[in-house]
Amino acid sequence: MGNILIHFNDNSYWDDHLSEESTDSGSTANDLDFLRMDWHKFLKARRSGGGFKLLESYMNDNPGDHDFPETRVLWIQGAQCTGCSESLLDASNPALLKAFEILNIDLKRHEAFLAHQGLFVDGEPANTSELNSEILLDEISEQGNYILMVEGAIANGPDGSGKYFMSGNRSSKEMFKKAAQNADLIIAVGTCAAYGGINTADSDIVNILDYRGVAFTKKDPSKGMLNLLGIDKPVINIPGCPPHPDWIIYTLSAIISGNVKIPDDLPEVLDKFGRPKVFFPPDHNVHKDCPRKEFFDNKEFDTCVGGEKCLLKMGCQAFLAHADCALRKWNDGHSYCVQAGSPCIACVEPDFPDNTRPLYSSKKNRKRKEADQ
Ligand code: SF4
Ligand code: SF4
């Protein structure tokens, strides 16, 4: 076991930032037990070895046994924009289909990816699971033995009926209940599924709509849909609006490889809001590794888009965001929100967006403006 070496390349940026790791010359596959890893070490391994190699290291742990047993995944969508699914399609290291192949994932149902699964043919309800995603959902959930991935918040309103969000003939609450009951594990993908997200933003109608996250609504687990339904299942939250594809794929990999046992290991690898600590470090925030930090330290701020200075006065809330975005970066490691000129809106936090509203606007600046008028 663990005889594959992942060699770290020389990289002055990483050595400068991760000085405590700079003497490492390599890491074994056992060390790459990444949901348990120190997040600095994980990022360094991922950056130098590549995510593809990182995933393959699990397969090479067992010579002669190069295939994981098939894992069935059932994906359902509540109130969402499909941005989380689109983000997953952007996975690049490895690409999504390659990751599914390596991990031997059978995606049984996904209404956006598997678009042939409609509900009606020639105006009549389709009556086979190949054509009708409601029948498919029933079949798979009755068989059990799957990971349920939930994208989007689940409506409880009006009056507990869940009918403010219908898909075909069913409410998303009904679909979620059906799918959750026999799931081995539930992964809430994106801030809407994890905590309610923009669906639970404070408004005149928020209590009537009564959207819920899977295991939390905002920071409150007692208001999660699972608690409301009286269903007890292990849950992993992968927040983000949208989440980084690495966060989703590497979490699946850790589970499928057996390196994180469900449910026994979850208290060790998750934070108090159900997030993998390796991607959402409790002791770290996006501000700490910002490429604009020198400007922050020198109190030099941009006040309109297109500059290179600190974005604090344009509403940057990176202090609140516990995530590795500034080091991992998005789009195959090229850039991320703040680097691209957009203030961080702390989209990974349970109370997003109310904790950071008004977005892209410094509250202090706004108050000053109001005082001046
Ligand atoms: S732009 Fe945001 S993350 Fe970067 S230094 Fe300024 S406040 Fe911090
Ligand atoms: S940088 Fe901030 S807004 Fe952008 S993805 Fe990360 S947490 Fe969300």
UniProtKB/TrEMBL annotation:
Its EC number is 1.12.98.3. The keyword Metal-binding applies. Its cofactor is [4Fe-4S] cluster; [3Fe-4S] cluster. [3Fe-4S] cluster binds at C325, C344, C347. Residues 81-254 form the NADH:ubiquinone oxidoreductase-like 20kDa subunit domain. GO terms for biological process: anaerobic respiration. Residues 284-360 form the Cytochrome-c3 hydrogenase C-terminal domain. [4Fe-4S] cluster 1 binds at C81, C84, C192, C241. The keyword Iron-sulfur applies. GO terms for cellular component: [Ni-Fe] hydrogenase complex; ferredoxin hydrogenase complex; membrane. [4Fe-4S] cluster 2 binds at H287, C290, C310, C316. It is found in: Cell envelope. GO terms for molecular function: 3 iron, 4 sulfur cluster binding; 4 iron, 4 sulfur cluster binding; electron transfer activity; ferredoxin hydrogenase activity; metal ion binding; Methanosarcina-phenazine hydrogenase activity. InterPro entries: Cytochrome-c3_hydrogenase_C (IPR027394), NADH_UbQ_OxRdtase-like_20kDa (IPR006137), NiFe-Hase_small_C_sf (IPR037148), NiFe_Hase_small_N_sf (IPR037024), NiFe_hydrogenase_ssu (IPR001821). Keywords: 3Fe-4S, 4Fe-4S, Iron, Iron-sulfur, Metal-binding, Oxidoreductase, Signal. Belongs to the [NiFe]/[NiFeSe] hydrogenase small subunit family. This is Methanophenazine hydrogenase small subunit. It comes from Methanococcoides methylutens MM1.
